[in-house]
Automatic annotation (TrEMBL):
This is Inner membrane protein involved in colicin E2 resistance. The keyword Disulfide bond does not apply. The chain crosses the membrane at residues 317-336, 343-362, 368-386, 398-415, 421-439. GO terms for cellular component: plasma membrane. Pfam families: CreD. Keywords: Membrane, Transmembrane, Transmembrane helix. NCBIfam families: PRK11715.1-1.
Length: 449
């Protein structure tokens, strides 16, 4: 029995196959703490999103704004036949309801100046903005002659101007719409829709007002976050946006004009021009006003890839880092005939896993480069010193230190790239495979003694 145990022990210590099986098994075991680290990164990232959402809700969420829309109520008279059971005959009942007609401007010009600033809560940061928006343009002559609405059924005395916006909370100045010589104050209307309604008081002498094209203008100061968008309700809609934010993402149904778009580290300037022919809705609606938010255009004020996203991308390479490092130790063991105990492999693997916890914890209080450098240096020093005690000498520990430093440097370069990450990663992995194949070519894989 003792002889069998001795043979098995010798086979485990000297057999290449046995050592490869042990290292492979330990690699799979080390994936468990690595998954815990990934879960920790996701949990911290989710917490960051929660805090940013709370900050944005208090300051003001994304802003979607329309230009002014003329709203004119009108009567709809319908007849309904009702059966009278007592007289066994039908009689006609006249029913009167009030509906609304909506008219969009011919020309709509929107000029916006967006000043961003960071808001902090604990270790988390959100980017919010204050926007000064100037809107002007003109309404066309309003004529019901092309409809079947009788002139006496049009309630001109109840005509108003409305604005649509997604963010009432962020408005910092009460908008006053100047309609030719009239100044119309605005008040919010109850609504459960995504776009809230702000409505003016009744337009005096509206029937005479709209017998000719009518200019309008208003100014608005509003707080928001994440994005600022506009609805292109003008027959011709022109918009400009200037901001000190350096990382805009132009979003929505229309992109800005390439000739007038400028982006630099100090901010951006963008202009849009949208014609009626470019969108799928008309200039007037009768009976209802549909949700036109799908046609909006504007800018997302995004934060470039943050520390949690970078940490998550780094952790995805954890299997490769642990696997290649253990493989290097295995090749050194096979070449040098130095015995490395499975426990020592586990300690080396856990040290590699600790890199990711150090990275995420330090990056919450510093920039990603500094956190990456500190975490990598700490793990490199720990494994180099530990391998010096295992491998006796300096040649192999320095080889391990160089290999790990190159691997960490390679991964840092990959996560900084966007368009070429896959290409550089594929070439790098090919070179690593070639080096391993070259380094292992002289090992006698048939020696199982």
């Amino acid at each position: 029995m003792e002889q069998k145990k001795s043979k098995f022990s010798n086979w485990m210590r000297n057999s290449i196959t046995a050592r490869m099986l042990v290292v492979g098994f330990l690699l799979l075991v080390l994936l468990i703490p690595l998954e815990f680290v990934k879960s920790l990164i996701n949990e911290r990232a989710y917490r960051q999103e929660e805090v940013i959402r709370e900050i944005n809700e208090k300051w003001g969420n994304e802003v979607l704004l329309s230009g002014p829309i003329v709203k004119i109520p009108y009567k709809v008279i319908s007849e309904e036949k009702i059966f009278n059971e007592k007289s066994n005959s039908y009689y006609t009942k006249t029913k009167e309801t009030v509906e609304n007609a909506y008219f969009f401007p011919d020309k709509l010009n929107i000029a916006s100046k967006v000043d961003t600033k960071p808001l902090n809560r604990s270790i988390y940061e959100s980017v919010v903005y204050s926007a000064e928006i100037n809107v002007k343009g003109n309404f066309p002559e309003i004529d019901f002659s092309n409809t079947d609405i009788a002139d006496e059924n049009i309630l001109w005395e109840k005509a108003t101007v409305i604005l649509k916006t997604s963010n009432l909370k962020g408005i910092k100045t009460t908008p006053v719409v100047k309609l030719d010589s009239e100044a119309l104050s605005m008040t919010p209307q109850y609504s459960t829709e995504y776009l809230n309604t702000i409505q003016s008081n009744n337009i005096p002498d509206a029937k005479e007002f709209f017998t000719k094209p009518l200019p309008f203008s208003f100014d608005l100061k509003i707080n928001g976050s994440e994005s600022l968008k506009f609805l292109p309700i003008g027959k011709e809609t022109d918009a400009t946006m200037k901001s000190n934010w350096h990382s805009p993402s132009f979003d929505g149904n229309f992109l800005p004009e390439d000739t007038n778009k400028e982006i630099s580290k100090d901010g951006f300037t963008a202009t849009w021009r949208v014609l009626q022919i470019n969108r799928q809705f008309e200039q007037s609606f009768f009976g209802y006003l549909p949700d036109l938010s799908a046609s909006a255009f504007g800018t997302k004020l995004i934060i470039p890839v943050d520390e949690y996203q970078k940490s998550e991308r780094t952790a995805k390479y954890g299997f490769m880092v642990i696997g290649l490092t253990l493989l290097v130790f295995l090749l050194i063991q096979l070449v040098s005939k130095i015995y490395i105990h499975p426990f020592q492999y586990v300690m080396i693997g856990l040290a590699l896993v600790m890199f990711y916890t150090l990275l995420i914890s330090i990056s919450e209080h510093s920039n990603f480069f500094k956190a990456y450098a500190i975490a990598a240096f700490s793990v490199l020093a720990l494994i180099t010193v530990y391998s010096r005690a295992i491998l006796k000498g300096f040649k192999f520990p320095l080889l391990i230190c160089g290999s790990l430093a190159s691997l960490y440097g390679f991964i840092y370069v990959i996560i900084q790239l966007e368009n070429y990450a896959l290409l550089v990663g594929s070439i790098g992995l090919f070179l690593i495979l070639a080096i391993v194949m070259f380094a292992s070519r002289r090992i006698d894989w048939n020696n199982e003694s």
